[in-house]
Amino acid sequence: MGQGTPRPATALGSLTSLVAAALVALALVANGCGGTSKGPPAGARTATPRATTNGPSTSTFVAAAEDICKRLNDELPRDKTAHPSIGDIARTAPQNAAMESEAATALGGLVPPRSLASDWSKIVDYRKRLAQELVELARDAQVNDVAAVLSLTASKAKLHERLLRASRHAGFKECSHIGPLRVQRRSSPPAPPAKGTHV
């Protein structure tokens, strides 16, 4: 009997040691310590990029891009005349060019899903080129260079057509045009330049 009395204490001590060891192991896992704890977070990180290429991620990207384009389209003033004069262009184009350039930069900062990468690259490139040509258009209008204004107007009309095709192919609406849509639907003007303020 004398030898039997320590055994419950020994068993209890062993059980206590096992519980303590388990708690230590859990604490290490919870704090990211130990070699085995690094596996699950790494797996979680690899799952996220795969999720960004599916439908919901594409919808989120399109919505973000459309929001930027809509804000720009709403901010750009509507033409008060069907065919703005060179003086009108010289006055309004610099501010419009700054807004278009800022929007193009914001759009270029968005990371598209793989399914839209090619189209998106074209869309951003067209919009940046249109903003730059508007800067040049304003400069030419300010010095009353009619020939240069007409040349740039024709160039910008072609870029707008490419932007429209690329944007519609990718499923965009607001990003398919710059400024009020009715301006983009207007036929090419016989006099310089119908699209100067919003292109």
List keywords for this structure.
199 residues; mainly alpha; 7 helices; 0% strand; disordered C terminus
Structural class: mainly alpha
- Overall mean pLDDT stands at 73
Question: Radius of gyration over alpha carbons?
Answer: 31 Å
Record field, number of beta strands: 0
Share of residues in strands? under 5%
Please summarize what this structure is.
The chain is mostly helical and 199 residues long. The chain has helices at residues 6-30, 39-51, 55-75, 86-108, 117-142, 146-170, 181-184.
Structural write-up:
- With 199 residues, the protein is an all-alpha fold.
- It has a domain at 57-184.
- It is built from 7 helices and no strands.
- α4 (86-108) runs antiparallel to α5 and α5 (117-142) runs antiparallel to α6.
- The longest helix is centred in the middle third of the chain and has 26 residues, at 117-142.
Topology:
Layout (H helix, E strand, L loop, with lengths): L5 H25 L8 H13 L3 H21 L10 H23 L8 H26 L3 H25 L10 H4 L15
